[in-house]
């Protein structure tokens, strides 16, 4: 499948998820998840060449749109990290994500991403900075952009898997948790694969966008669980938190 088609499919799914959260957001419930989905929509849209070139052109054509994507991703994973850790009743994951360790990781990644971006020679718009992949500073810039989201994903794998295997949770909740578990695991595996140079070409598109797709559908499943009116105490609490 063409990489751009994959991106447009994922974009459509994220848009549907955001629209499904709109009513709850208007009612004042869990607005942060809606914000995360809107930011995810922005991030996916900016990965599409035609949109990226238009936006980056408006920003001066020096790839500031790519820097925007990095900070959009940081924000998404701060929000999802806090909400998912709370939803899965995992205080240790919450402490790792937004406690001293997580905040230090976020701060270091943010500062170094900006520094590596400034040090790179990026004279023309290039989606994903693919035209500049030979520059060492660009490679390190990419790493800094991926480390914090991968760190958050790693923190959430065990809590999500525990919920997926819980017999007290509803079927819909367990399916949602399973999707999140697989999504976060793929994200971690993708980063390890990149560092070992095992992931390249179309896989470098399929794996990260599979993560976005699985996480988004997982969030949709929590909405479905609420609409279905599940009555079990734990599933209800979990879906309400998400």
Secondary structure: elements and pairs:
Blueprint: H1 3-26, H2 31-45, H3 49-58, H4 64-87, H5 91-98, H6 100-119, H7 136-164, H8 171-195, H9 203-227, H10 233-241
**How many domains, in number, for the residues?**
1
How many β-strand stretches?
Answer: 0
Number of helices: 10
pLDDT < 50 stretches? 230-236
The whole-angstrom Rg is 18 Å
Q: How is the biggest beta sheet arranged?
A: none
What structural category arises from helix and sheet content?
mainly alpha
What is the succession of H and E elements?
HHHHHHHHHH
- Average predicted local confidence, pLDDT: 90
What is the strand content?
Answer: under 5%
- Residues in helix, %: over 70%
Distance between the termini: 32 Å
Globular, elongated, flat, extended or rod-shaped: what is the shape?
globular
Characterise this structure.
The structure is a single chain. This protein has 242 residues and is mainly alpha-helical. The chain has one domain (3-228). 78% of the residues lie in helices and 0% in strands. It has helices spanning 3-26, 31-45, 49-58, 64-87, 91-98, 100-119, 136-164, 171-195, 203-227, 233-241. α1 (3-26) packs antiparallel against α2 (31-45), α1 packs parallel to α9 and α4 runs parallel beside α7. The chain is globular and about 55 Å long. The relative contact order is 0.12. Mean pLDDT is 90; it is low at 230-236.
